[in-house]
Amino acid sequence: MAKNTSSSAFRKIDIDQYNEDNFKEDEAESSGPTGPDEGEISLKLVLGNAPLGSSSQQVKDNALAITLKVLLAIKSAQIEEAVGNLSRDDIDILMKYIYRGFEYPSEGSSGHLLLWHEKAYNIGGSGSIVRVLSDRMRV
Q1: What pLDDT shows up at residue 135?
Q2: CA distance 46 to 68
Q3: Residues 91/50, Cβ–Cβ less than 8 Å
Q4: How far apart are CA 24 and CA 1, in angstroms?
Q5: Summary mean pLDDT of the chain
Q6: Distance between CA atoms of residues 70 and 96, nearest Å
Q7: Cβ atoms of 108 and 28 closer than 8 Å
Q8: N- to C-terminal Cα distance for the chain?
Q9: Residue spans of alpha helices (H) in the chain
Q10: Residues 128, 92: contact at Cβ < 8 Å?
Q11: CB within 8 A of 139, min separation 6: which ones?
């Protein structure tokens, strides 16, 4: 049986900091690019160097991991501007990475990828989705 003590030492620990509902978006996004131009430059770089014709799955998986880091590092408010500066081909490649990201979700990635999908869809339209899906059928 437990002893009844008047010790309140256990109350000095703030257990609310471990609650998932108290997640602060500003803290998570502070580790991303320091300026809006850095995120756009990184995005254009990873999309421009996508290993589309590669037969190595390891190369494709590495490119996906890097691209997802870039996508998740760009703040929500900067997504529309970043997508607006992409070409049609880059938007199609972006959609491919978004759908691949949905296949391998990580903590908090799905909601952020949905924002990317919405903005990419607004620019690329349903044609972008059809091109991505038809490309998957050929592979």
Answers
A1: 80
A2: 10
A3: no
A4: 40
A5: 81
A6: 15
A7: yes
A8: 65
A9: 25-29, 36-48, 57-73, 79-84, 88-103, 109-138
A10: yes
A11: none
d(CA 86, CA 67): 15
pLDDT of residue 25: 42
- Element housing 65 (H / E): helix 57-73
Q: Do 34 and 28 form a contact (C-beta atoms < 8 A)?
A: no
CA distance 44 to 82: 9
Q: What local confidence, expressed as pLDDT, does residue 54 receive?
A: 84
Q: Look at residue 40 in the predicted model and tell me its pLDDT.
A: 86
Cα gap 37→97, rounded to integer Å: 21
List per-block mean pLDDT (blocks of 10 residues) for the chain, which spans 139 residues: 62 60 44 63 91 88 92 92 93 94 87 94 93 75
Dihedral (Cα; 91, 129, 116, 111), 10-degree rounding: -160
pLDDT for res 89? 93
